[in-house]
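Need residues for this backbone.
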């Protein structure tokens, strides 16, 4: 009996979210007394093998095929389904990213099994009991899963990715699925690099700006502070709606979920749809003229004042202390 954990990567660079799922899966498999095995699909996947073993994958299934060079939801879903059937796996898991949930939805449909998405906690047994995130993070729901094959995703940032106390063997098994043309309905035609180096999702420092920043140009002050702290700039949807920043900078339910060491939220009211993307931050500093703003209430630290004075003052103080 085994748990298969789908690990996402881009030409061999593992997605940190997949290592979270593997960390979660390793713990779950230990409690359920089943083996924890990783699945990597597509070109360059072999570059991820050492990391998967270090994070507790007892076996790694390396799936390759001409149609699997880059991501494709039908092709990945069909591959994982065939692997579940051929290994006799009793559970299959991925991180609850857009991709993870998309692939598992295909797997569940093909297996004709239920799919429980975005779990934060799972207790195995004859029937699994679990807590999962609903409504973009504003509701935690307790539920049970009674299925022949359990298909579950783990909500992003539910656990930290940590290597196993002792690396697993990570023995590699090659798998070639039987894929027809219908598996290639959705394919990657072009690869465009939007960001290089540190990203919004992984940056240890995020300086976020909301409608209170007032204009596209107003973000220069936030860029300066982010630069001084080695971080990146994020924003609210009010900002992307105004065209001041691209959607790739948006934090929230319909943007990126962040988990930095510190999130500086300037001129952001803290609406629930923004908060669900920011709530995994370890520390939050709110800068707002409104002491009653939701973001101020939720933040560990707050400065009540005009961000156009407060943000440059922080940047200047950092420069002064660094001499
Ligand atoms: C389905 C759906 C999905 C959504 N998804 C997202 C999402 O992913 N991300 C997201 O962010 N939103 C999302 N929203 C929108 C969300 O509901 C809010 O409308 C949005 O987050 C508000 O952005 P804001 O905080 O920048 O603006 P506002 O709510 O207008 O807040 C501006 C804040 O700036 C403060 N302020 C003004 N001037 C200054 C100043 N000079 N100095 C300091 N503070 C100042 C004000 O006191 C206020 O608190 C979504 C909404 C829906 C319906």
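Answer:
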């Amino acid at each position: 009996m085994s748990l298969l954990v789908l690990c996402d990567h881009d030409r061999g660079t593992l997605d940190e979210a997949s290592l979270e799922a593997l960390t979660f899966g390793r713990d779950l498999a230990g409690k359920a007394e089943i083996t924890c095995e990783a699945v990597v699909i597509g070109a360059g996947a072999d570059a991820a093998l050492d990391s998967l073993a270090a994070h507790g994958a007892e076996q790694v299934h390396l799936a390759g095929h001409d149609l699997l060079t880059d991501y494709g939801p039908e092709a990945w879903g069909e591959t994982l389904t065939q692997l579940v059937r051929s290994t006799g796996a009793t559970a299959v898991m991925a991180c609850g990213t857009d991709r993870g949930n998309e692939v598992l939805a295909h797997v569940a449909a093909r297996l004709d099994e239920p799919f429980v998405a975005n779990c934060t906690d799972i207790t195995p047994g004859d029937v699994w009991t679990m807590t999962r995130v609903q409504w973009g993070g504003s509701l935690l729901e307790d539920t049970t899963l009674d299925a022949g094959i359990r298909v579950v995703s783990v909500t992003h940032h539910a656990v930290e990715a940590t290597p196993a106390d002792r690396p697993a063997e990570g023995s590699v098994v090659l798998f070639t699925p039987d894929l027809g043309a219908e598996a290639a309905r959705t394919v990657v035609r072009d690869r465009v690099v939007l960001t290089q180096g540190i990203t919004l999702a992984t940056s240890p420092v995020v300086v976020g700006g909301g409608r209170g920043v007032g204009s596209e140009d107003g973000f220069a002050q936030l860029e300066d502070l982010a630069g001084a702290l080695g971080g990146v700039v994020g924003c609210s949807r009010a900002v992307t709606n105004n065209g001041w920043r691209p959607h790739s900078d948006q934090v929230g339910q319909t943007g990126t979920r962040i988990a930095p060491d510190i999130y500086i939220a300037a001129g952001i009211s803290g609406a629930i749809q923004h908060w669900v993307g920011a709530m995994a931050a370890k520390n939050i500093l709110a800068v707002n003229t409104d002491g009653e703003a939701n973001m101020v209430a939720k933040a560990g630290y707050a400065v009540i004042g005009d961000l156009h004075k407060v943000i440059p003052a922080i940047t200047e103080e950092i420069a002064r202390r660094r001499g």
